Structures are given as structure tokens and as C-alpha cells.
Amino acid sequence: ARGSAAPQDLAGLEVVVSAGGTREYLDPVRFLGNRSSGLQGYALARAAASRGARVTLVSANVSLPDPAGVAVVRVETTEQLREAVVAATATADAVVMAAAPADFRPTSVSTAKIKKASDGSAPAIELVQNPDVLAEISHERAREGAVIVGFAAETGDDSGTVLELGRAKLARKGCDLLVVNDVSGGAVFGSADNEAVVLGADGAVVEVPHGSKSALAHVIWDEVVRRVVR
Ligand code: CTP
Ligand code: CA
């Protein structure tokens, strides 16, 4: 870890990081969720703070201690995450969307706890798409010169390799950098380590060797610093 020896190259910058996984409620006690641990987002927040940035961490359902010197905003749903990220993005120099917002939410949330039917039948759950926060902030560009970073966990399939899918997603989202994880092995969630390729809208391809989430976080901030317009 760079610790107190970290260069203060993010001093004067305001950055926003989202972390964790959203919950989409079915009723007051049940939700659809995902396996995001928040570890990568928290590593990004800690790394940015150690390099002198003013950090807002939008945290969705994470059980990790608050990083020192970071403003933490807690959210549960994708809609809440969207509100918090959009609000913080207005003045931000960089935004890193490390969170895993749910792609879908139940069409309606029951105000009362859903009960079992006596005939043994099960309810069908109808879903609608959630707003795409990364695409929204990338296309709106609240502050010119800000650097917007997305993450993508890909497995590769008939339609393309992990990198091809990453390139297409970067273009679709409209962000400046996309951190692509190959999750074919299924080993990233909750793991201390990570291995990734950082793709730039400017054509950059930065391969990050297998290492800690903190090491990947520092590489991401290196790429942000290189591009941000102060
Ligand atoms: N993301 C977002 N809002 C959503 C879904 C995703 O801001 N509703 C962000 C994630 O935080 C991540 C990036 O978009 O930084 C890519 O997420 P991913 O799930 O890979 O993208 P999707 O467009 O949802 O594509 P897919 O169909 O592959 O899940
Ligand atoms: Ca998704």
C-alpha cells in the first residue's frame, strides 16, 4: 500500500465513487439483490482519499467500515443510487461507477408482506428495467472535463470476446474509461483480488495484472489523473 507516501495528485479534485449492490424491493421485507461486496468501490474511495481527493462514496448495502476521511451516502435501491450519484456528480471532477445496480426491479412494490396462497400457487414477479445511471451521467456531462469511469464484468459469449464486449459497452455507455473484468471463472465476487483491463474511449488499453483491489484502484486513479481537465 502507498499509505502516507501516496502522491497528492488528486488534491483539489472532487470525486464520486459508487459501491455495492442495490436491492429492489418486492414487499417491505423482501428484495432482489446481487453478490457485489463493495470491496472494489471501497478500495477506490480509500485510494482517492489517500491521494488527496475529496471523496463522496455512494454505498449500496455494503457491510464494510466507513473509510476514513470519506463522505458516505447510504442507499438501497437503484433509484436512490441514481439520485445520490446524479446530485454528487454536478460538481465532480471524476465519477467511478463501481456499484452493481440491478438491471431490473419489480414493476410494483407491495406495501404489505406478500402471503402464501392456500392453493399452493406462487406469484409471478413482473420486472421493469431500471435507469442506467452510468449512461445517464455520461450523456448529460454535468461538468465539462470530468472523467467518468464504468465497470463491466463479462464472460464472453457467441457475440464476442470479453474485450470486444467491453469495447462495445464503453461506446454504448458513453463513459471515458471502462474497467473490464473477466469473470468467466466466477471468482471475483467478494474476493480480495482482481484482474482487469482498463479501456479508454481514446483507444487506450491498460492491462492490470492480477493483484489487490487497492492496486487496481490506484491504476484507475492514474488513468483518471491523466485525463481530467481541472
Ligand atoms: N450501471 C449503471 N446503472 C445500471 C446498470 C449498470 O450505472 N442500471 C453501471 C455499472 O455501475 C457499471 C456499468 O454500468 O459501471 C456496467 O454495468 P453492466 O451491468 O456491465 O452493464 P449493463 O448495461 O447493465 O449491461 P449487461 O446487460 O451486460 O448487464
Ligand atoms: Ca447489468
Describe the 3D structure.
The chain contains five helices and twelve strands. The protein has helices at residues 39-50, 78-89, 133-140, 162-173, 213-227, and strands at residues 14-20, 24-27, 30-32, 54-60, 71-75, 94-97, 104-106, 127-129, 147-154, 177-182, 193-200, 205-212. The strands form three sheets. It has an eight-stranded mixed sheet, with helices on both faces. Strand 2 (24-27) and strand 3 (30-32) form a beta hairpin. Helix 1 (39-50) crosses helix 5 (213-227). The mean pLDDT is 95. It binds cytidine-5'-triphosphate and calcium ion.
Shape: globular
Major β-sheet profile: 8 strands, mixed
Number of strands: 12
Number of helices: 5
Indicate the proportion of strand residues. 25-35%
For the biggest β-sheet, the strand order reads 5-4-1-6-9-10-11-12
Rg, nearest Å? 18 Å
**Helix-and-strand structural type:** alpha/beta
Q: Low-confidence segments, ≥5 residues, pLDDT <50?
A: none
Proportion of helical residues: 25-40%
Write the layout of secondary structure elements.
Blueprint: E1 14-20, E2 24-27, E3 30-32, H1 39-50, E4 54-60, E5 71-75, H2 78-89, E6 94-97, E7 104-106, E8 127-129, H3 133-140, E9 147-154, H4 162-173, E10 177-182, E11 193-200, E12 205-212, H5 213-227
Parallel strand pairs: 1-4, 1-6, 4-5, 6-9, 9-10
Antiparallel strand pairs: 2-3, 7-8, 10-11, 11-12
